[in-house]
Amino acid sequence: MNVCAAPCPIAFDLDGTLIDSAPDIHASVNAALREHRQPTLTLSQVRGFVGGGVDVLWRNITTALDISHPDLRRDLMASFMSRYHDATKLTRLYPGVIEALNILADRGHPLGICTNKPLIPTEHILNHFEIRELFGTVIGGDSLPQKKPDPTPLRVTFANLGSDPDHPRGIFVGDSEFDAATAAAVPVPLLLFTQGYRHKPVEELPHHAAFDDFAALPALVEGVLIS
Q: CA 136, CA 118: separation in Å to the nearest integer?
């Protein structure tokens, strides 16, 4: 597994890792469904569909609601995206995120974002919380042809942060099955945030260490570097 000495590039997932965006996604989904006279979904249902990007989100939604007409699927996604691009009202940073990011940046670690969320809403939410300048690179779900769990987006993230493109070294911080599979495919250590959107028990996901409080993250990073 490719670990590096300090300062080490650290890449972060976004939804379910740094931010709880499910309430805004849920609101945008239901607004689109109501606009097209379709049944709405619960927050728990939508939260369970988050992680694979917009295409996977809507594939899960239309399957759950038995919507098969391709024109309706297209119109629903377009209606959703018109709202999702700047949806920030209900999204929150997880407690301790800003403090942990600042500590890691102050220690010289290059920081990046690797998410399946489209780039425009990703940039919008980072600017909304005034943390965009902390990240040397941001790879969204539409930045490349590939999405997580394909390892390419994470490899590009680390390369943009100064890692060897052929032998990327760094640490990935994520919350889901997508993130665990991506880190394992690179391979780099995963620090697994347990309060996000995963579906499986923690012990079923490959990870170096797990945490439920961002106050613990800087010490976990140091633990990876000396392990």
A: 17
